[in-house]
Amino acid sequence: MNWRDVQSKQHKVAKILTNALKNGRLVHAYLFIGDRGTGKKEVAYQFARSYFCPHSDGIEPCGQCSECKRILSGNHPDLMVLKPDGRTIKKEQVANLIKEFTYRGVESDKKFFIIEQADLLTPQAANSLLKFIEEPQSQTVAVLLAENRYQLLETIISRCQLIQFTPLSQSDVESHLTNQGISKNIARLASALTQDVQEAKALCEEEWFANAIASVIHFMEDIYIRSNHAIITLYEEFSLQFNDTVKLQTGLDLIIIWMRDLLNLHLDKLDEIVYIDQMEKLKQQLLNVSIDSVVLGLSLVLEAKRRLDFNSHPLGVMEQLALRLQEGAGSYV
């Protein structure tokens, strides 16, 4: 990543930070707020490289010196990163961080620390951190990363410069994936499931994901074209592919995307179709289903997603969904 990459995805973020670097007007604490996948962590490390790199042009780090390389590898002695220990960041972790910062920098007077998921600080840890950032040491920069600002103490927020990261669009994520050699068909589906680039990329690289897509397509054909086969497909293929609750939730999301494609096809919104390589099958199913039946189907799938969160028998949820989808498909043709 370089600042040009940041500017292309988070223009305001890049402008604020590069101007501060260029003019030598860094504040002692920044709070990066934004959804998962918006690039907060990557920008924090890019910021650290610019801060430490002795060969930067004032903004862009060289990427080749030992400072840059050690930051990338996580081995820089004057860069500290704090992460949740389990579900929270504890007071003892903050205490250890503060202790480390009482020592002089190993290679200069500069220090930089990043707190990932700062919204998971316990109240005690947050209060300890507050005392630390209220009295910053010279040449120390703190970057806090968080998704939910309302879980942070207002006093911490008031001591930081707040920098808001905007969510990536579905097209941004899709472009990022296709630029890495991932096929447009798979990239479009993954970006419809998540706006987290890394999560989307991981999905695309899993063999399971391709198989899951094929199972959903087969299942939807059985629902709308060969309805008497749907339960058989559910037992013999679908349930084997989606064999835990997390995978099953993804399967239901893929079904929702299919149904939305049917709606978009009904409404002639062809540019919004996600299953772009399955247009013939979508058109074939369109002959058998009305808008009302698709809307009903969507509500049934959303209800099944809610039930999965509280049900210890996911296959039972799917059985009921399949039967109700069959009934709904037949009721509104």
State the domain count: 2
Helix proportion range? 55-70%
Number of helices: 16
Mean pLDDT, all residues: 89
> Structural class of the secondary elements?
alpha/beta
Name the CATH homologous superfamily of the largest domain.
P-loop containing nucleotide triphosphate hydrolases
The CATH class label of the largest domain is: Alpha Beta
User: What general form does the structure show?
Assistant: elongated
What oligomerization state is this entry in? Answer: single chain
Number of strands: 5
Strand line-up in the sheet with most strands: 2-3-4-1-5
What is the CATH topology descriptor of the largest domain? Rossmann fold
The parts where pLDDT drops under 50 for at least 5 residues are none
Q: Spell the H/E element sequence.
A: HHEHHEHEHEHEHHHHHHHHH
Euclidean distance between termini CA atoms: 52 Å
CATH architecture of the largest domain: 3-Layer(aba) Sandwich
- Could you tell me the strand content as a percent range? 5-15%
What integer value in Å does the Rg equal? 25 Å
